[in-house]
């Protein structure tokens, strides 16, 4: 039982690193059997995880506050061509997904 928990936490840490690098967020607790994922709309991450063998299913929508949600272009006073881009925090829509931490192939192996 202890080894299974350690293994699940390792798999979760690896998955967290992958998801974060692809611009998504895991919102479940490390070691939980079910993983909750949030992505920006249009992200390929859910399909990428399905191709990797995870049974990813939609679980609704939500919102997330992001530090760079909006970009504003400001014309510098006295200049006709110089502008600067300023980013602002804001609320963005996210899509939620849920899936078992074990890949489909691993689930079948344990059943047989």
What does it look like?
With 112 residues, the protein is α+β, with helices and mostly antiparallel strands. The protein has a single domain (2-64, 93-111), classed as Aspartate Aminotransferase, domain 1 (Alpha-Beta Complex). It contains three helices and four strands, in the order H-E-E-H-E-E-H. It has helices at residues 2-21, 45-51, 104-111, and strands spanning 25-26, 34-39, 57-75, 83-100. A four-stranded antiparallel β-sheet has the order 1-2-4-3, with helices on one face. The model has no long low-confidence stretch (mean pLDDT 87).
Label this structure with key terms.
112 residues; alpha+beta; Aspartate Aminotransferase, domain 1; four-stranded antiparallel sheet; 3 helices; 31% helix
Mean of residue pLDDT values: 87
CATH architecture group name: Alpha-Beta Complex
Low-confidence sequence ranges: none
Helicity, in percent? 25-40%
Order of helices and strands: HEEHEEH
Major beta-sheet overview: 4 strands, antiparallel
Output the CATH class name.
Alpha Beta
Q: How many separate domains make up the residues? A: 1
The end-to-end distance, rounded to whole angstroms, is 19 Å
- Note the quaternary state here: single chain
Radius of gyration: 19 Å
CATH T-level fold name: Aspartate Aminotransferase, domain 1
Q: How many helices?
A: 3
Number of strands: 4
- Read across the widest sheet, the strand sequence of neighbours is 1-2-4-3
The portion of residues forming beta strands comes to 35-45%
Structural class by secondary-structure content: alpha+beta
Shape: elongated
